[in-house]
Amino acid sequence: MTIISQLAFVVILGFFGFLLYKRITRIKKNIQLGRDQQIDDRKGDRLRQMLLVAFGQQKMFKKPLPAFLHLLIYVGFILINIEVLEIILDGLLGTHRVFAPFLGGFYTFLISFFEVLALLVIFSCVVFLIRRNVTKIPRFHKIEMKGWPTLDANLILIIEIVLMKAILTMNATDLVLQDLGNANYAQTGTFLISGMFVDFFDGFSESTLVIMERAAWWFHIVGIFAFAVYVTYSKHLHIFLAFPNTYYSRLEPKGKMNNMQEITNEVKIMLGMNTGEEASPPPEGMKFGAKDVNDLSWKNLMDAYACTECGRCTAECPANITGKKLSPRKIMMDTRDRMEDVGLSLQKGGKGLEDGKSLLGDYISKEELNACTSCNACVEACPVTINPLDIILQMRRYVAMEESAAPQSWNMMFQNVETNFAPWKFAPTDRFNWAQEINEK
Amino acid sequence: MAESIQIPTMADMAAKGETPEVLFWVGCAGSYDDRYKNVTKAFVKILNKVGVSFAVLGPEETCTGDPARRAGNEFLFQMQAMANIQVMNGYGVQKIVTACPHCFNTLKNEYPELGGEYEVIHHSTFLQQLINEGKVKLAGGGEFKGKKITYHDSCFLGRANNVYSAPREVLEALDAELVEMKRCKTKGLCCGAGGAQMFKDAEPGKKEVNIERTEEALETGAGTIAVACPFCMTMMSDGVKNKEKESEVKVRDLAELIAEAEGLNG
Question: Which stretch is the leader sequence (chain A) (predicted)?
């Protein structure tokens, strides 16, 4: 009998492992659609940033209540995985609670501790469901959250609650079977939380209890495998990508825009300056700025996968607050959607990037780009150091330089800078007039 | 005013074989905008009184290129930047002070990659240093003593470059009661003019950003809204006018407040 369940377990593990592997490869390929960007400096500072922001959740604590609840789920997720390890070993080896004999009394404590965490996870998830669906926090109900994003958010919370309940059911029925002296259920001592639910299962027959225990065990572990695959299609991917994302995030002052070296070379040639290298025209087909996902850097694309759509960026965005179309969260969601669409098309042997669509225009409109004040509020707000502003500014470059389609007032400003050396139409000869005026009063 | 103030240019000084300690980068708003020229003058009066060795580029100064870059015209930005760097490197400029956070950000963070490496500081930090060094004394704070002042963070000073405390320390030196808006420091709300918005109309929406911010500033009950940026100055002043509060609430730059407390507004 055990050999059959062991085989079934191996098959299920292999099946989900394969799905997960395929999906991870796909995501990696999608991120690699982005242009190359060398990020290999200041490794110590990067590690520190990752430990503080991702592992230590530093930026979450700007909002203490959700930060605390989120921390409970996060700690629960990490530590309960130790129990998942035991469950996987049991599944493969045909054992039952393989760690128990080695750990003795400490095992009882450990499982009790996990149960407390499970209870806290359930509590946090319930509060989060209420926050999302009852208290109507505005950032959860913006236009870009209609449909799948809202369903996705609720599903994640519900799945987590169900999985935690499965652990408690599994443990409670196990305890009852131990009391009944079932040979397959060795004594472990009473667990703290599930021990309180033992009475609930007392009336059932031994065979029913075995079925219940096994069902809960299988449901929990298969549920976890399925959830792991689901996560890769969901905003919940942040649980993994928050780590590399914070590691590779910019360490420079937020106000600094990346220099376009290809333009520096051209400007130097125009000004008759020594470029220090072979002066060559930019390669054929090269475009300035970003029109589609492959013009953005791989880090911009990783940002999009790391986004969990919490909307803190949008809640702080001055344009969004005052009713403009721009939402930094939507910029990230659109980037991800475009990447997924291109990736799916390529997977099917379709046209991929050449499908006649592009991130600019079909996903993100100029009106959104033009509303940005580059104030960095979104960048500051993001708990996993995503930079929506960087994407906006790269797309503005494409609009201004490749399409010459910047707003008319900006084109006039450009003209003023070119001819009057100031963004307003004042005569350069009047620039120093204030020095006379200072003594006039 | 007893004696007239002379403003040396880098060219004047170079002709005499001198180099100033610091270049005062005036910026386009500081040079042309009627309201912000007052800030330029106030700052120069302070420099003059303290005896800081400074000079300006005068007619040789041009736009840093910041608005062009934020609006997407990288080409124009780099043309401006290269030209300015050539001029400044020609004079051997080492240190720059400016009252414009946009110029400050560009000069400090974006010029080095194009060959312009300088020590760049914003006038709020410069004023704070003068106060700390005892060069600006502000005996008793004068007319601002105990009065409510709120400070509006410039995005390009605050979030962009982490300058939050210098402007506040300057205000505290006035003995004023510094009252914070609900959204301040890292969470400060933009005035609405950054990212080249200053040079175009806002996109369609239900409200102007500067009105949202002005309402917040007025809620503090402060009689003075202190700013440290020419764009913030315009946006907040327009907001106060829109709310018809210009007789009770003044929008002032840090340099103006210090100059006034020092009795330099003659």
Answer: none
